[in-house]
């Protein structure tokens, strides 16, 4: 409904004047807030060129930001592959007819979805070393944490997708003599995966943002290198945070747009996915 | 439970979760209010407001929460000296609540907006036909129906918010995850027990909350 005005009449002369007045009032208000922020920054000398100059030098990008982006993308890509596999295995497990498979799979998925990711990462990087008597590299504590959490979310998404495939599909497959595993492999999972593509991509955005938690266990990703280490060198934490935030926004905005585009495409194809469990996606992680 | 039979450890455990609870409560209220306002802005007839709402959602939804919280601390507090309380813990608490609300409001806004899209156009058209203004249409006709349609997504946002409060530990607030880290470092022989107690507390509260919202969503859904 947004965009096309169903909520209000086409503005007549009086409404046009009122809208113009409101536009000016709120425009001035927003500008005033921006000016206040500008003044505050200026007061503290945050516009000093020495703080922003590092971003014009190649060395800053080569030493901090580019390696940071690489670290972020490496962790995100590895975790995404593992999370997809985890999600696939556990969604199929939860849909199994054997209770001794479906119940444990359900417990695992529900548990990892309910536990904060940071708690898991802390356990892996500080607790597990006590158990295995050797340190866990930060990369793996981030990747394993991300895999368990996002894998569980994806498992629920796949399950919702399988439930959304019209019943006639599996009935037809059984009628031609396929067994359950074949029906899953050839009929349900491919259609569900396609229907769930937008959800998968938006989960990728969540995962990419969550790699920022690597900062807390000193994994050298964008937030760690671009804000922490960089500002330790140049003393420009506000400037660095703004630049890094813009980088995150660009990457995630592109992925979100891709997800929306895929969403519109699948909607045109007419497969509609409804929530299967009590809670499906939409939360947005860290 | 040898670790938790020590009263000092048990108190730390309780106080860690009290911070989580307080942050969840305060941020949930603030984020809901902000989110409803943002959603109203995004469907309003005034272009400036629509742009403002869109910009807010795109900026905060696409920035990692860790970065927002760090900015609240290093940017607002340490550099621009915006102080929200004289008590160091309370100051960190409110800085965290500020970051969490600003971030979560973007998700609340998007959930509500998709709810507004589920309300049939005829409802708004009928409201306009009997002469209701934009704000009346939104307040009396559209938002109540949209709100009932998005109870399940709002529930997931609330659950995510509760889990996200652990990130405020980054700026030094001794909430549950920091307490767990401390206990693990002090009691290396009982790490699994410690993890299971902390994770189990979250799971024991949040899984039923998830089902509660699912049940509520079914009960309150607008039957069409």
Structure, described:
The complex is a heterodimer of chains A (286) and B (224). Chain A contains 11 helices and no strands. Chain A is an all-alpha fold and 286 residues long. In chain B, α4 crosses α5. Chain B is flat, with a radius of gyration of 21 Å. Chains A and B meet through α1, α4, α5, α9 and α11 of A and α3, α4, α5, α6 and α7 of B.
Which shape of chain B, going by the Cα principal axes? flat
Number of helices of chain A: 11
- The percent of residues in helical segments of chain A reads over 70%
Largest sheet of chain A: none
Radius of gyration over C-alpha positions of chain B, nearest whole angstrom = 21 Å
Q: Report the mean per-residue pLDDT of chain B as an integer.
A: 92
List the defining traits of the structure above.
heterodimer; A: 286 residues; mainly alpha; B: 224 residues; 0% strand
Give a brief rundown of this model.
The complex is a heterodimer of chains A (286) and B (224). By secondary structure, chain A is mostly helical.
Topology of this structure?
The complex is a heterodimer of chains A (286) and B (224).
Chain A: H1 13-43, H2 49-52, H3 58-94, H4 99-114, H5 117-132, H6 138-164, H7 167-175, H8 180-195, H9 197-210, H10 222-234, H11 237-269
Helix pairs in contact in A: 3-4, 3-6, 3-10, 4-6, 5-6, 6-8, 6-9, 7-8, 9-11, 10-11
Chain B: H1 2-5, H2 7-42, H3 47-61, H4 65-79, H5 88-118, H6 121-129, H7 134-149, H8 151-164, H9 176-186, H10 191-220
């Amino acid at each position: 409904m947004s965009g096309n005005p169903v909520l209000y009449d086409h503005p007549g002369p009086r409404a046009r004047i009122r809208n113009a007045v409101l536009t000016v009032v709120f425009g001035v208000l927003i500008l005033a807030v921006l000016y206040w922020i500008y003044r505050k920054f200026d007061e503290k000398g945050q516009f000093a060129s020495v703080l922003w100059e590092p971003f014009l030098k190649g060395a800053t990008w080569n030493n901090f930001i580019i390696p940071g982006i690489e670290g972020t993308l490496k962790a995100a890509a590895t975790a995404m592959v593992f999370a997809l596999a985890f999600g696939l295995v556990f969604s199929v497990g939860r849909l199994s007819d054997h209770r001794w498979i479906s119940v444990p799979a359900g417990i695992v998925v529900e548990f990892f979805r309910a536990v904060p990711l940071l708690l898991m990462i802390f356990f892996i990087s500080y607790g597990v070393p006590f158990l295995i008597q050797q340190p866990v590299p930060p990369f793996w504590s981030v990747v394993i944490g991300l895999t368990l959490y996002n894998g569980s979310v994806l498992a629920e998404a796949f399950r919702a997708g399988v439930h959304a495939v019209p019943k006639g599909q599996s009935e037809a497959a059984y009628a031609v003599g396929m067994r359950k595993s074949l029906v899953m492999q050839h009929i349900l999972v491919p259609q569900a995966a396609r229907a769930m593509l937008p959800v998968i991509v938006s989960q990728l955005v969540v995962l990419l943002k969550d790699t920022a938690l690597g900062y807390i266990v000193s994994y050298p990703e964008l937030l760690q290198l671009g804000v922490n280490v960089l500002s330790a060198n140049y003393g420009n934490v506000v400037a660095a945070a703004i630049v890094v935030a813009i980088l995150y926004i660009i990457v995630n905005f592109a992925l979100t747009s891709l997800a929306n585009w895929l969403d519109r495409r699948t909607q045109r194809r007419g497969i509609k996915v409804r929530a299967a469990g009590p809670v499906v996606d939409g939360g947005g992680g860290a | 439970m040898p670790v938790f039979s020590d009263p000092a450890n048990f108190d730390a455990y309780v106080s860690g979760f009290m911070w989580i609870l307080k942050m969840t409560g305060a941020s949930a209220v603030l984020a809901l209010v902000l989110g409803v306002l943002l959603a109203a802005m995004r469907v309003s007839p005034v272009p400036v407001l629509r742009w403002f709402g869109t910009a807010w959602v795109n900026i905060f939804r696409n920035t990692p929460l860790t970065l927002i919280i760090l900015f609240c601390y290093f940017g607002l507090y340490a550099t621009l000296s915006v102080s929200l309380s004289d008590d160091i813990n309370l100051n960190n608490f409110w800085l965290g609540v500020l970051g969490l609300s600003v971030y979560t409001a973007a998700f609340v806004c998007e959930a509500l907006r998709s709810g507004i899209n589920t309300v049939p156009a005829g409802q708004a058209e009928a409201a306009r036909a009997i002469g209701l203004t934009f704000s009346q249409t939104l307040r009396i006709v559209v938002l109540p129906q949209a709100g009932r349609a998005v109870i399940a997504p709002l529930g997931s946002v609330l659950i995510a918010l509760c889990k996200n409060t652990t990130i405020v530990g980054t700026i030094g607030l001794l909430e549950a995850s920091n307490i767990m880290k401390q206990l693990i470092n002090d009691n290396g022989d009982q790490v699994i027990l410690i993890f299971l107690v902390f994770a189990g507390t979250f799971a024991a509260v949040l899984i039923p909350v998830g089902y509660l919202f699912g049940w509520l969503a079914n009960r309150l859904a607008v039957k069409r």
